[in-house]
Amino acid sequence: MEFAQITHPAPVPGETRAQAIADPGFGNVFTDHMVTIDYHADRGWHDARIGPREPLVLDPACAVLHYAQEIFEGLKAYRHPDGSFALFRPHVNAARMNASADRLAMPHIPEDLFVEACRQIVLKDRDWFPTVDGGSLYLRPFMFASEAFLGVRPAREYKFLVIASPVGNYFKSGVPAVSIWVSRDFVRAAPGGTGAAKTGGNYAASLVPQAEAIAKGHDQVVFLDAVERKWIEELGGMNLFFAFADGTVVTPPLTGTILPGVTRNSLIQLLRDEGLTIREERYSIDQWRRDAESGHLLETMACGTAAVVTPVGKVEGPEGSFTIGSGGPGQLTGKLRERLVAIQRGQAPDPHGWVMKL
Ligand code: COI
What we know:
- One of its GO terms (biological process) is L-leucine biosynthetic process.
- The protein has 358 residues and is of the alpha+beta class.
- The protein has 2 domains: 164 residues, 2-Layer Sandwich (D-amino Acid Aminotransferase, Chain A, domain 1); 166 residues, D-amino Acid Aminotransferase, Chain A, domain 2, CATH 3.20.10.
- Helix content is 26%, strand content 29%.
- It contains 8 helices and 18 strands.
- The strands form 2 sheets. Strands 1, 2, 3, 4, 5, 6, 7, 8 and 18 form a 9-stranded mixed beta sheet that branches. Strands 9, 10, 11, 12, 13, 14, 15, 16 and 17 form a 9-stranded mixed beta sheet that branches.
- Helix 3 crosses helix 4.
- Bound molecules: 2-OXO-4-methylpentanoic acid.
- The site of 2-OXO-4-methylpentanoic acid has 5 residues, from loops.
């Protein structure tokens, strides 16, 4: 599909942009373009265009505002040492968006169209890559129901958009390891629910427990399973890995209540490349505490596109607080982060063909 190029009437001046990308934090600064593609049940996807980032005009009856038919993705673009640009496993994000679409009764977007939309915005906004160390251009593709009606049924009209945000670290810099609060009153997802889909509602539901975590002095909330309230699932927006003294690593299995993270999947491969045994199996909050206290558990890491690979240092659970290892970054966490980032940034060979040069 051809992308119509809409001329920007007033691009952000270079000086303002330079200031904005010097130290952008995470998700605070946006480039000045966006991709839009429309969908109608009778026409399929049509009218792909890239133009100025601008407010959307929506009918107040449009379905997303009432029944939350919305899904999104998150992926990063990197500037490589040779000056070229690259995406990391964009087809995996495209496939996950379509899996989310299946759960939310939304149409698939062809994977190549998803990837081309990402490519278009990166090349258009190439001057927006942050200058801060470790910076990247975070892409946020999303799709929502734009048809105006109030009956409860899947909409017949949708919009797919991609916006871009120059980003640095997700967690404020200087934090050696994050601290986690175990949610007691709230769960993220129940069996049969939407936990495996990347849909706004899952994140909306995480806001109160996340605010509780912050109020208790922690960085992130971790959710337990909805049925037994004992198995560790995931953080508000990241997957978890547990590394043990015997060289094995555990991560919670994809049972339908956990988001199948692209970083999670990549780390499983990198751990296998290291010759480590990685098990996708349930791990309980009690075991987490016992293993941390006995020293059998050496490290816990949180991972996601935004968070990359971040060490967990402290946990406050129902039975009180415990510390993981020294409470600071562990060896394996540091090594994995370095390996992943080096591949993403074109500073190391890419044995699995994960990097797509633009
Ligand atoms: C991502 O890691 O890309 C996410 O969508 C999670 C969110 C916490 C930013």
